[in-house]
Description:
Blueprint: H1 3-44, H2 47-63, H3 71-85, H4 108-121, H5 123-149, H6 152-166, H7 175-195, H8 203-211, H9 217-230, E1 235-237, E2 240-242, H10 247-263, H11 271-274, H12 276-282, H13 285-290, H14 302-320, E3 325-326, H15 327-342, H16 347-361, H17 375-391, H18 396-406, H19 412-417, E4 424-426, H20 431-437, H21 449-454, H22 457-465, H23 470-476, E5 481-484, H24 489-495, E6 500-505, E7 510-514, H25 516-526
Parallel strand pairs: 2-3, 4-5
Antiparallel strand pairs: 1-2, 5-7, 6-7
Amino acid sequence: MSYLPDLESEHQLGSTSSFVLHSSSDTRRTARISRGILETARGVFTFPAALASLLAVTVFATAREGLADPDIWWHLRNAEYLLTNFKLPRVDGFSYTVIGHPWINHEWLAEIPYYFAWRIFGLVGIKTVSLILLESIFLGLLYLCWQISGNIKASAVACVFAVMLGSVSFGPRTLLFGYDYLLVLLIVLERFRSRGKAPLWVIPPLFCLWINTHGSWSLGMVTLGIYLAAGLVEGQWGRLSATRWSPPQLRKLGLTMTLSVAALFLNPYGYRLVLYPLDLAFRQKLNIAHVAEWVSVDFHDFRGKLALILIVALIIGALVSNRQWRLHEAALVLFGLYSGLTYIRFLFLVAIFGAPLLASLLDFIPQYQREIDKPLANAMIMAAILGFMVGGYPTTAGLQKSIDHDYPTEALPYLKAHPPTGPVLNHYLWGGFLEWNDRDIPTFVDSRVDIFEYAGVFQDYINLLGLKDPETILDKYGIQYVLFPPGEPLTYTLRLDPRWKEVYTGQVSVIFERSSHALAATAGRGQ
């Protein structure tokens, strides 16, 4: 009988021990999970991630307003034609002045994402594509600057400066695809230059994609050529130095260049698309001379002052810093400065080429120290940035308001109710908008300057703006209606001309109609 109490006591002791063991195991498991969550948080909510978020919100705040690019409308029309007919347009079908003339759509591949985004999300979709492209460009630039300088803080400062400089090309532009490709090219080439190995196989397919997307592939080919040529010499000239490629490296780069050139011909237009940048540079004189983004930098405006600050910073850095300038870095910056100061649209290129060097010159900024990082503070910063971006995301109403400010949307109901019965002279920047929004009206001109310049139409348009014998030009094309902004000199002239009647007046646009007597007289002179 004495065994029973002993057995019961032993059973109770075993149960207690088992409970203690399970509790201890659960505690250790909970501790491991907690440590895992903490380590994950430390890996995600780092100070570099917070800096990347600050750069992203800078891009967002700078680019979220409006759809400021007149090309987007005929890009949408082209993509619609391609996806409806499964063939590329090879002649003009939008205007009445150059209809049927041969034309190369050298940005056809970049138009498709914008079109699908519009089909799914409307104006917000178009804006979203441009924001994604811009964010990827500058986050890629941040990575490149960090790769070269080794200082994430200095890289972030340089990239914020680059955002301000590159904002000249913010908007729903096909050019943004080209700058994304350029960042990929620079990252691969810089890795090959610094480490001796990199995925060079990416570059030929990149150029195949690039030439079908935008004519800026030529900038990429110049960049590739600079990297290759800078490694053909070796030496040190003051603070400028160059290291020669090893024979295997040179063979790899030479093969990459050869395959990249061959890849350019994989396009639906063949050699004509390859030659298009030369056509732009040497044949399209009026395009270069009269389109706003092709003018030279004005050092009196904001972007001109930023460019001047960058030039001064580079000069001072070269004088006081002990840093060695690598030959290809100096060549890229000089190429970028020449391009950007000559044509304002290439200030974006200056930003891309100049930011890594600027980050290296800011090496006096203290380095990031992981051991004193504060994940909670970083998480709070990133959460606040996410909240701002979600709360401030562009809306259809806001984007439409900006369109109403820049384009003659107010005149569309009038044009629908009173369809023009003859040729319409439209404002140059409104051509694509009309081609997309009122397809019953063939346009006089749009921002595809090349085709209109070849036929002499763009020269006539410039003469009209300058009031150089406007009556003769209006008669030449049999213009019966004029759709122009109210502040243009031609608008003022037509208001004083009894042969023209102002039939519509709005905040953004006015419409004139030529009197039937004047039109008959014009026809009689033509006979």
